[in-house]
Every structure is written in structure tokens, then in C-alpha cells.
């Protein structure tokens, strides 16, 4: 779970988030290290669409959200695809 970025009004989907059970380390890898494991977990997470929406809406810059790395989200925002 992305505890660092959570606000007091925790969103409902975050209580269902698979990463809440695995810990945040996977989701905030060191620069240049693999995000493959985080993406694998996101791939099994039912909250993925809500999570990605949240990250895009809140301009989350760091870590893996909704199965996408920060670079991939930037690309998505720029191109819309
Ligand atoms: S999609 Fe990934 S980052 Fe988002 S809640 Fe699920 S496991 Fe966590």
C-alpha cells in the first residue's frame, strides 16, 4: 500500500488493494531497478482500474500504480493511449 501518499480519507478501493498485503517495497523500486514484480501483482489486483485512475487523477509521479510504471503513466497522459 502506498502509505506515504494516503490521505486521511482513505479510498475504498485501497482497502482491497493487493499491494496492501505485499508491502510497498515492490512498488517503489530504486531508480533503474525492475518493476516486473510490482506489475505482476498489479496484474492480479481487482482494484487495478481504480488505482490507475487515482494515480492519473492525483498526478502520482513515483512508483508503480495500476500496473504502470511512472514512465508508462507519463506516456499515457501525453498520448491518451
Ligand atoms: S493495481 Fe497494483 S498498485 Fe494498484 S492497488 Fe493493485 S496492486 Fe496496488
Report what the structure shows.
Belongs to the WhiB family. Its cofactor is [4Fe-4S] cluster. One of its GO terms (molecular function) is DNA binding. With 81 residues, this protein is mostly helical. The protein has helices at 12-15, 19-22, 36-43, 48-57, 70-79. It has one domain (8-79). The chain is globular, with a radius of gyration of 12 Å. The structure holds iron/sulfur cluster. Residues 17-19, 27, 41-42, 45, 47-48, 51, 64-67 line the site of iron/sulfur cluster. Iron/sulfur cluster binds next to helix 3 and helix 4.
Summarize the structure.
It contains 5 helices and no strands. 44% of the residues lie in helices and 0% in strands.
Q: Main β-sheet: number of strands, strand sense, barrel status?
A: none
**Overall mean confidence score, pLDDT:** 83
Share of helix among residues?
A: 40-55%
| Percent of residues in β-strands | under 5%
How many separate domains make up the residues? 1
Count helical runs: 5
Order of helices and strands: HHHHH
Q: Structural class of the helix and strand makeup?
A: mainly alpha
Count of individual beta strands: 0
What Rg, in angstroms, do the CA atoms define?
A: 12 Å
| Molecular shape | globular
- Unreliable stretches covering 5 or more consecutive residues: none
N→C terminal distance: 26 Å
Task: List the bound ligands.
Answer: iron/sulfur cluster
Family: Belongs to the WhiB family.
Pfam families: Whib
Protein name: Transcriptional regulator WhiB
GO cellular component, one term: cytoplasm
Amino acid at each position: 500500500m502506498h502509505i506515504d501518499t494516503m490521505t486521511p480519507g482513505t479510498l475504498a478501493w485501497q482497502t482491497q488493494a493487493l499491494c496492501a498485503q505485499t508491502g510497498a517495497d515492490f512498488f517503489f523500486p530504486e531508480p533503474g531497478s525492475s518493476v516486473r514484480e510490482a506489475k505482476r501483482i498489479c496484474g492480479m489486483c481487482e482494484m487495478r482500474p481504480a488505482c490507475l485512475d487515482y494515480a492519473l487523477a492525483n498526478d502520482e509521479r513515483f512508483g508503480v500504480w495500476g500496473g504502470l510504471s511512472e514512465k508508462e503513466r507519463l506516456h499515457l497522459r501525453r498520448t491518451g493511449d
